[in-house]
C-alpha cells in the first residue's frame, strides 16, 4: 500500500491467492506475477468514492486496479478466476487454494462493481443537477482476511520448499498424463471418424452390390432370352437387320456385365481396407485403455501426495499457532519486565 493513500483508503476484504498476468505478446499464456501466494485486497477511498484492488509483493505493487462497472470477474475453473483491466491493458488471473475462497472473492468483486456503478451514477446525477450535495461515505466494513494476519505469520523455510517441490511434481505428472491421453483420444477420434465413413461406404456398396446382382441376373436372363431368340431366328432364317440388332444388344449387355464385375471387384478391395482400419482402431483402443490405467495410477499417487500435503499444511498451521501463542506469552513477559524496570527506576530515584 502506498503511504499517501493510507489515510483515505480503508481495506474492506482480503484474500490469499497466486497472482498471474496475461502474456502481452501472445495474449494466451499466463505469466506468474508472484512466486508465492500473496494478499489481494479490496480498498475503498471514501474521499473520491473509488474502489481499488491492490496486491503488493515485496516492495512492488503487482496489482493496482481501479474497479469500474464494466469489469467482470470470470471463473475459469474451480480455483481460478480472471478479469480484464483496460486501463493497464492487461488481464489479471488469481489462483486460490480452495473453491470457497474463489467464490468469496467473486461475490465481493460483484458487490464492489455494483457499488462502483452506483457511485458513478450518483456522480453523474450530481453533475447534471449542478448541486453541491455532500454524499456521506459508507462505513467501511470490517476487514475479512481469509488466511489470517500477515504481520505475525511465521513459516518454516524447509516446509515451503517441500510443498513447492510437491506441487511442481504434481503439475508435471498431470501434464504428462493429460498430453498422452489427449494424443490418444485425438488418434482414436480420427480412426473412429474414418471407421464411420468406411462403414457407411461399405453399407452403401453392399446395397449397391445387391441391386447390381439383381440387375445382373435380369441382364443374364435377358441375354439368354435374346440368345434363344437369335437361335430361333437363325433356325427360321431371320433377316440380316434383325440379326445385327440382336447382336448389338447382346454386345451392350456383355459390356455392361463386364463393367458391373469391375465395380464389384473394387468394392471387394475396399473391404480389405476397412478390415485394416478396424485393426488400427483396436490397437488405438488398447493404447487408450493402457493410458487410462496409467492415469488412474497417477490419480491415486496424486491423491496420496495431496493427503501428505494436507497433513503438512495442518502441521505447519499447528506450528504457526504454537509460535503465535509463544509470541503472545513473550509479549506479556516483556511488558512485565518493562513494568518491573520502571518500578526499579522509581525506587532508585527515591
Q: Compute the gyration radius: what is it? A: 41 Å
| Count of alpha/pi helices | 3
Low-confidence stretches: 1-6, 131-159
The ordered H/E elements are EEEEEEEEHHH
Provide keyphrases for this structure.
8 strands; 8-stranded antiparallel sheet; 350 residues; disordered N terminus; single chain; alpha+beta; 15% strand; 3 helices
List the helices and strands and how they pair.
Layout: E1 9-22, E2 30-32, E3 38-45, E4 50-57, E5 60-66, E6 74-75, E7 80-85, E8 90-95, H1 99-129, H2 157-235, H3 240-349
Antiparallel strand pairs: 1-2, 1-3, 1-8, 3-4, 4-5, 6-7, 7-8
Explain what this protein looks like in three dimensions.
This protein starts with 8 loop residues before the first strand and ends with a helix. With 350 residues, it is an alpha+beta fold. α2 runs antiparallel to α3. Strands 1, 2, 3, 4, 5, 6, 7 and 8 form an eight-stranded antiparallel β-sheet that branches. The longest helix has 110 residues. A hairpin with a 7-residue loop joins β1 and β2. The protein contains three helices and eight strands.
Amino acid at each position: 500500500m502506498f503511504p499517501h493513500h493510507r489515510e483515505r483508503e480503508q481495506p474492506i476484504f482480503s484474500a490469499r491467492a497466486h497472482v498471474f498476468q496475461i502474456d502481452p505478446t501472445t495474449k494466451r499464456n499466463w505469466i506468474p506475477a508472484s512466486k508465492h501466494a500473496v494478499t489481494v485486497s479490496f480498498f475503498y477511498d471514501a474521499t473520491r468514492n473509488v474502489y481499488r484492488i491492490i496486491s503488493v509483493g515485496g516492495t512492488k505493487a503487482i496489482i493496482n486496479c481501479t474497479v469500474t462497472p464494466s469489469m467482470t470477474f470470470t471463473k475459469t475453473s474451480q480455483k481460478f478466476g480472471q478479469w480484464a483491466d483496460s486501463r493497464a491493458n492487461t488481464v489479471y488471473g488469481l489462483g486460490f487454494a480452495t473453491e470457497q475462497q474463489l467464490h468469496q472473492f467473486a461475490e465481493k468483486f460483484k458487490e464492489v462493481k455494483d457499488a462502483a456503478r452506483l457511485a458513478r451514477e450518483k456522480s453523474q446525477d450530481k453533475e447534471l443537477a449542478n448541486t453541491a450535495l455532500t454524499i456521506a461515505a459508507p462505513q467501511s466494513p470490517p476487514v475479512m482476511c481469509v488466511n489470517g494476519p500477515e504481520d505475525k505469520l511465521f513459516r518454516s523455510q524447509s516446509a515451503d520448499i517441500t510443498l513447492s517441490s510437491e506441487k511442481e511434481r504434481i503439475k508435471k505428472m498431470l501434464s504428462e498424463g493429460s498430453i498422452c491421453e489427449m494424443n490418444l483420444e485425438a488418434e482414436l477420434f480420427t480412426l473412429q471418424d474414418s471407421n464411420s465413413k468406411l462403414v457407411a461406404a461399405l453399407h452403401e456398396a453392399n446395397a449397391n452390390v445387391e441391386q447390381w446382382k439383381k440387375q445382373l441376373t435380369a441382364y443374364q436372363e435377358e441375354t439368354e432370352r435374346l440368345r434363344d431368340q437369335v437361335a430361333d431366328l437363325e433356325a427360321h432364317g431371320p433377316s440380316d437387320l434383325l440379326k445385327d440388332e440382336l447382336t448389338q444388344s447382346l454386345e451392350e449387355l456383355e459390356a455392361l456385365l463386364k463393367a458391373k464385375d469391375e465395380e464389384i471387384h473394387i468394392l471387394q478391395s475396399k473391404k480389405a481396407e476397412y478390415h485394416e482400419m478396424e485393426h488400427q482402431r483396436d490397437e488405438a483402443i488398447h493404447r487408450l485403455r493402457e493410458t487410462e490405467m496409467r492415469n488412474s495410477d497417477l490419480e491415486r499417487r496424486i491423491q496420496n501426495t495431496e493427503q501428505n500435503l494436507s497433513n503438512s499444511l495442518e502441521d505447519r498451521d499447528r506450528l504457526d499457532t504454537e509460535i503465535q501463542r509463544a509470541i503472545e506469552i513473550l509479549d506479556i513477559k516483556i511488558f512485565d519486565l518493562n513494568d518491573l524496570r520502571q518500578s526499579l527506576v522509581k525506587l532508585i530515584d527515591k
